[in-house]
Amino acid sequence: MTTNFTPAVPVRTYERVVEQIENAITSGAVAPGDHLPSERELMVQFSVSRPTIREALRVLQSMGLVESKPGGRGGPLVLEPSPASLTRSFTTMVRLDSLSMRELVQFRLVLDSAACRLAATLHTPDQLAAMGSCVERMEAAVGADTAAFARADVDFHLAVWEASGNALLSMCGQAVAGAILQLITQQLKDAADSARIEADSAALDRGIFDAIAAGNSMEAGRRARQAIYDRYSSLLPAEDAPGLDALLG
């Protein structure tokens, strides 16, 4: 009998440190809001050098697990789960051509549709009121305050994702939305008729809200898909249109 082994891959010391700290966080042994030991204490506990600890903390910070503040009291802060690291990953993959903008927009289209369908069924009165308030803020800011409009638009989608009751859907939705906005911000700023774009966006979100308020999950999902299509399809190459059209039905 012949057994084929694969070559052993050396593991850097800092990777072992990352692995142990990550396991402590994901297992709940160290909770969000807790502080890790100081660099000096970590050096003693792991029996490694300061550069090794700093490299491990840099990796953990890039993963969105901890935050280190120069001069801060105590060791690095363990963070709550956040879509920020996912946003960075999606953005980087598009810039490195590992993902296309079409794929990001397709993913956003699917996520928003699912979130709106769930929100139409599962929302609480307080959540519905929060969504309605965001739409009213958007409508009031059209053509008058671009920054206020953008904040209200983001808040509306955050409220919808929260009302979906699905934390993973919410995190992925926020991450994809953030990545798309980072990649097309300049195109949006350069738009000739920003007031018209804002008015159209507010009308789309008003339609989504009305469907959610009516408890019509199918219509809420359909309007969400149409809203994403209308907002972003014109910013993509014409050859990408069939890949979006297929998801509108």
Automatic annotation (TrEMBL):
GO terms for molecular function: DNA binding; DNA-binding transcription factor activity. Keywords: DNA-binding, Transcription, Transcription regulation. It comes from the Bacteria. Residues 11-81 form the HTH gntR-type domain. InterPro entries: GntR_C, TF_FadR/GntR_C, Tscrpt_reg_HTH_GntR, WH-like_DNA-bd_sf, WH_DNA-bd_sf. Pfam families: FCD, GntR. SUPFAM superfamilies: GntR ligand-binding domain-like (SSF48008), Winged helix' DNA-binding domain (SSF46785). This is DNA-binding FadR family transcriptional regulator. It comes from Paeniglutamicibacter cryotolerans.
